[in-house]
Design goal:
Spore Coat Polysaccharide Biosynthesis Protein SpsA, Chain A; alpha/beta; 17% strand; globular; three-stranded mixed β-sheet; 15 strands
Length: 368
């Protein structure tokens, strides 16, 4: 009887089996798509943004962590708005304080902010949160092949620079900072427009020292340099693979520095050959050490040492700042029409001017 029924309903049974397997296959496919959907969205977001901002002349690259939304929001609400003080007149970019507490944010096409975040290994909840954040801010640069951690900061900046080199055609200068840095982006762009790459004008001579005065330069590396730092052999900054010498090569401290498009492209082209050290700023010093014709400029307005030197109104970057600190400085600037960064100025501890005409171990004699 059973065999008779099978023969009679053979076609129906085969059809049922066929559609069962089709259903299973579709279900598994949808599951795979759901797991990959967030990563695909990340890639499409990066591609979309690169097209929209391919002609940005100034990229502000802010290294951030997946869980640091509060810090990112503080930057969006404070110093990123300082670009409002820049405007274009007769083809030139000029500075004039134009910001009040209620001023709408002006998004200049020639300045683009990117918070670089590694997304490899993140949970779907965390990734969805970042995608939602980016849907309102449009400023996250997702590095899909990087698991975000302190020990991979050098790889992080390497991947970010490679992406920028490939996607931003009009780049002139890149301003790198951390998400706990307060940056006078308006004044940095003003000085770059007016003085770069020579950085030798009398207007800024009291703040800067540079290695050599050449008729022309092939690039700019601008920040607060150190050339006498000893190599860490243990602890958070331990460098297991360092073999070059007993001290780090001269480098601009990573709380904030500026590099030219020529350096960005050089690093991108040679990414596969470059060594990675624990500290990304140390790595940058090594990567650029052999480059000829790069103007290395030390500027005391970059407060980027391991401990803040205190607050002075002329500072361009202040590292190790909390979101509360950022709001206080922003409020002070708004109320003083850009004149006062600090509610009260404090002495600059450990300040030095870099001496480029001596060996690096003698470069950085401190004074107050």
């Amino acid at each position: 009887m059973f065999i008779v029924l099978v023969k009679r309903y053979k076609s129906m049974i085969l059809a049922s089996i066929f559609f069962f397997y089709i259903g299973c296959g579709l279900t598994l496919s949808f599951l795979r798509l759901e797991c990959a959907e967030a990563v695909s969205t990340v890639s499409s977001v990066n591609n979309k943004k690169s097209i929209l901002h391919s002609n940005s002349e100034y990229i502000v690259l802010i290294l951030s962590g997946p869980s640091n939304e509060e810090k990112r929001d503080a930057i969006r609400a404070t110093w990123s708005k300082l670009s409002t003080n820049l405007f274009i007149e007769n083809g030139e970019k000029l500075y004039k304080w134009n910001l009040t507490g209620s001023s709408p944010t002006v998004h200049h096409e020639f300045i683009k902010y990117y918070f670089a975040i590694g997304t490899l290994g993140l949970s779907k909840i965390k990734l969805d949160g970042l995608i939602q954040e980016n849907s309102r801010s449009h400023d996250l640069l997702f590095l899909n092949e990087l698991e975000d951690s302190y020990k991979k900061l050098s790889l992080k900046i390497l991947l970010a620079l490679s992406w920028i080199s490939s996607n931003v055609e009009g780049l002139k200068y890149l301003i790198k900072c951390d998400d706990d840095s307060f940056v006078r982006i308006d004044l940095i762009v003003r000085d770059l427009e007016a003085f770069a790459p020579q950085m030798s004008d009398t207007v800024i001579s009291e703040y800067v020292s540079y290695k050599e005065n050449l008729p022309s330069y092939k690039g700019l590396y601008w920040g607060y340099f150190d050339g006498r730092a000893k190599v860490f052999m243990n602890g958070k900054w331990q460098e297991r693979d360092w073999f070059l010498c007993d001290h780090y090569l001269p480098y601009a401290l990573g709380g904030g520095y500026v590099i030219s498009q020529s350096i960005v492209d050089y690093i991108s082209r040679n990414a596969d050959f470059l060594s990675h050290y624990i500290s990304e700023d140390v790595s940058m010093g090594v990567w650029t050490a052999a480059l000829k014709g790069v103007n290395r400029v030390h500027d005391i307005r970059f407060d980027t040492q391991w401990r803040s030197r205190g607050c002075v109104d002329h500072m361009l970057v202040r590292h190790n700042q909390t979101p509360s600190d950022m709001f206080l400085m922003y409020k002070s600037l708004v109320h003083s029409h850009g004149e006062k960064l600090c509610s009260s100025e404090t002495p600059q501890h450990m300040l030095y001017r870099y001496k480029w005409n001596v060996l690096p171990s003698m470069c950085c004699k401190q004074y107050t």
